[in-house]
Amino acid sequence: MEKINVCTAQHGYEVLIGHGLLKEAGRLSGDGAGKKAAIVTDSKVGPLYAEPLDTALRDAGWATCLFVFRQGERSKNMNTLGRLLEFLAANRLTRTDTVFALGGGVTGDLAGFAASVYLRGIPCVQLPTTLLAAIDSSIGGKTAVNLRAGKNLAGTFWQPERVICDCDTFRTLGADTLADGLAEAVKYAVIRDRELYDILMRGDFLADAERCVARCAAIKADIVSRDERDSGERLLLNFGHTAGHAIEKASGFSIPHGRAVAIGMAVAARAADRLGLSAGNCADPLVEALEKYGLPHKSPYDAETMARIALTDKKRSGANIRLALPRTIGESFLYELPVENLAAFFRAGEG
Ligand SMILES: NC(=O)c1ccc[n+]([C@@H]2O[C@H](COP(=O)([O-])OP(=O)(O)OC[C@H]3O[C@@H](n4cnc5c(N)ncnc54)[C@H](O)[C@@H]3O)[C@@H](O)[C@H]2O)c1
Fold it and tell me: Which among 67, 143, 210, 348 is most buried, taking Cβ atoms within 10 Å?
């Protein structure tokens, strides 16, 4: 088992990564005698993994209850949040009880949000079952639901008590969900970790999941520990996301997030190389990694379309847009680009 420490102002915690950890979750969560555990999961993950978690928690003394919501991003809304809060109240959870978020990023964001506002905050344990949740969303304490006006517009910062990642759960992931996680793993390698890049290229992420997840989780933990509130360094995690989000939106979400980010990273890296912003050749090794993991790197949309959509993003403000760009493989920086130059930047990044 791998252990990563996350240090935040709220509190420090461990990310535990290994095989067969769901069955160990009771032991890893401490003595549950006299305490309640609310397991929150979705309709796909629940039938697969709720039972072993429930048994493990009961064996450690926890009294358990189970909340299942319909799988998918569309459930990440105020309605499901409201139902979940009522569920916690109906089951009389108190401040000494714990929410266990079992699933992907949707479950983690939703359950984390509920834990952060129920009784003004109760403990939450994250048990990520997608690659993306394991290496990204379960670490760092960002919780959210979507509003009609846009994605993740309501949320809190609420750090989990611990993160328990059982790599065995990745075996049942669908191809698109896997691709979402693999694109994020390539992103970590490019922005921060040349050695991870070499590991990804020499070996295979899934065959070596424990080690690869731990390396990615360590990068996320390090960045979050230094920029808990998303004001500086944490923005490096947005590498590929400016064009990526635009591509996702332009396709009406038929191009899934991970594949869109993969293309977005390639666009940004090519532009950085061609405009002399990187130290040299970042795009070729990035594209090699994307190809190895079956991810795309050419945008089906032209630069003007991507820029127009990117600039309608509600989270953007001011005359400049901040882009995360690679300097070399393993090192990245934030670059301020005047918004009127975004289309030209994307044009320079065409494949
Ligand atoms: N909080 C953060 O810092 C942060 C960071 C990145 C993304 N996110 C959020 O994460 C969400 C995306 O996460 P996601 O891709 O994990 O989505 P998800 O939770 O919807 O999971 C994707 C699909 O995989 C299924 N699934 C999950 N685990 C499975 C398993 N082991 N076997 C089979 N099927 C499984 C789910 O039921 C769902 O259908 C988005 O809402 C995004 O906004 C949050």
Answer: 143
pLDDT recorded at residue 229: 78
Indicate which CATH number applies to the domain containing 298. Answer: 1.20.1090.10
Residues lower than pLDDT 50 in the chain: none
Q: Are residues 91 and 184 in the same domain?
A: no
Evaluate whether 98 touches 164 at the Cβ level (below 8 Å).
no
What b/e sequence results for 171-192 when a residue is b if at least 16 CB atoms lie within 10 Å of its CB, and e otherwise?
eebeeebbbbbbbbbbbbbbbb
Q: Is there a single domain that holds both residue 150 and residue 297? A: no
240 lines ligand 1 (CB under 6 A): no
- Count of structural domains, the chain: 2
Domain range enclosing 161: 2-172
Q: Which atom of ligand 1 is least distant from the CA of 180?
A: 15
For residue 301, how far is its CA from the centre of ligand 1 (angstroms)? 26
pLDDT tens per residue across span 5-55 = 999 988 999 999 999 999 999 999 988 999 999 999 999 999 999 999 999
Last residue of a domain, one of 151, 172, 193: 172
The pair of three-digit structure tokens given for residue 93, joined into one six-digit string: 């959870």
